[in-house]
Amino acid sequence: MTALRHYISGTDGTIPGIGGCPFDMDRLQKDYVDGSITPTKIINFGAKEASDPLGTNVDMNLEKLGENGSCDGKQILDVLACSGFYETSTLNFRVPNLHKPGAARASDVWVVVPDNIVVPKLVQKLHQGGVDKIVIASLAFLGAENDKPSVVQEVEYTTCFIKFVDPMSYGFLSVFSFSFIRMKITQKDIKQLSNEGKNGEAGNYIYEFDYNGASQPAAG
């Protein structure tokens, strides 16, 4: 079981696919074609303009996460499924003190996106270098004045290496995985209340960890 967890081979109840893909791609494909999926996550590959190597030519009108938000809705793709986790070794809970004998580690991130012009570029990156930054953002409707979705969480991955790309097995979808050195999670805290039709915002929580140096660069 431990070996399976480390390779994310579908132990979360999903059906493992080609290359260790943890998703039931046939079901995702059917739901996507039937139009029964409303994606709640988007991905940006660090591109700012359509002319960038990993530009997608897809823009979305949204409210980004604060002034320094990494995802502004430009050059993005819908994320139909995403999987990744962080873990560390611990001794049995019955011992008097809970020790952590092993370093913290992170799994690869697996992502399913609709076919797009960026997919051949991901295959190219598989053979030719890394991606400086990949950002996966979660969206929610929070009663914005312009009826735009708001970014409520960003996970920014730095120094990424594409490890697996499958652009052929499923007609309208592509699945890929990547490793990374550093991750930064920014979460928007929304209070469960309404004041004059506006949700209460309690600020942001930020956590960042560098797996290359086993250090916590910033937290707040």
Describe the protein.
By secondary structure, the chain is mostly beta strands. The protein is built from 3 helices and 11 strands. Strands 1, 2, 3, 6, 7, 8, 9, 10 and 11 form a 9-stranded antiparallel sheet that branches. It is globular.
Short description:
11% of the residues lie in helices and 37% in strands. It has 220 residues and is mainly β. The longest helix is centred in the first third of the chain and has 10 residues, at 25-34.
Secondary structure layout plus pairing:
Layout: H1 2-6, H2 25-34, E1 41-44, E2 76-79, E3 81-83, E4 86-87, E5 105-106, E6 109-114, H3 118-127, E7 131-140, E8 150-166, E9 173-179, E10 182-195, E11 198-210
Mean pLDDT: 82
Tell me the Rg in angstroms. 19 Å
Described by the principal axes of the CA atoms, the overall outline is: globular
Q: Structural class, from secondary structure content? A: mainly beta
Per DSSP, the total helix count is 3
SSE order, one letter for each helix or strand: HHEEEEEEHEEEEE
Quaternary organisation: single chain
User: Into which percentage range does the β-strand content fall?
Assistant: 35-45%
User: Which percent range fits the helix content?
Assistant: 10-25%
